[in-house]
Design a protein that fits this description.
- It is a single chain.
- With 137 residues, the chain is α+β, with helices and mostly antiparallel strands.
- 29% of the residues lie in helices and 26% in strands.
- A hairpin with a 5-residue loop joins β3 and β4.
Length: 137
C-alpha cells in the first residue's frame, strides 16, 4: 500500500496532541513557550504522524532541529518515513533562509535515522540542558 504523505505547518491547536504523544512515549513534555514558530507536522494518509521543530540562530548560519515526536503505536516504518519527510522539509526551510548547517540533540533511535540522512556525531560527551535567563540568587 502506498502512503500519502502531507507536510503542513505546526499550529498551536496541535499542542495538546503532541503533548499526549510525548507522554505516551514517556518523554518530557515541552512547555509551549519552548517550541519555535517554525514547526512541521507530517501526516500519513490524512492522519498526523509526527512533529518536528526548527530553531534558527540569528548570529551564524546554523539552525537546530528539536522536539521530535511521533504518534504512539505508529509502525517503525511509518515513524521513519514521517521523520525523513520532516527532516527534508525543515532542510528546505532552513536552506531557504540561508542556513548552511543543522544541529540536533536527540534520542539514540532518532540519531540512528539521522546518521542515514547525512548527519554525524558532534560530541558523545555532552548533556542537553535548559535554563532560565533569570539570574540565580
Amino acid at each position: 500500500m502506498n502512503n500519502t504523505i502531507t507536510m503542513r505547518p505546526y499550529i498551536e491547536e496541535d499542542y495538546d496532541m503532541i503533548c499526549e504523544w510525548w507522554a505516551a512515549h514517556h518523554r518530557s513534555i515541552r512547555p509551549m513557550q519552548y517550541l519555535p514558530k517554525c514547526g512541521v507536522v507530517c501526516e500519513i494518509n490524512g492522519k498526523p504522524a509526527s512533529a518536528l521543530f526548527l530553531h534558527m540562530d540569528n548570529s551564524c548560519g546554523m539552525s537546530m532541529i528539536d522536539h521530535a515526536v511521533s504518534r504512539p503505536k505508529l509502525s517503525l516504518a511509518n515513524s521513519m518515513l514521517a521523520f525523513k519527510h520532516s527532516i527534508s522539509c525543515l532542510r528546505k526551510i532552513s536552506r531557504g533562509f540561508g542556513y548552511h548547517t543543522m544541529w540536533v540533540c536527540t534520542y539514540p533511535g532518532i540519531a540512528r535515522i539521522l546518521s542515514r540522512l547525512g548527519f554525524s556525531v558532534l560530541s558523545r560527551d555532552q548533556v542537553a540542558m535548559v535554563g532560565s535567563t533569570e539570574e540565580e540568587t
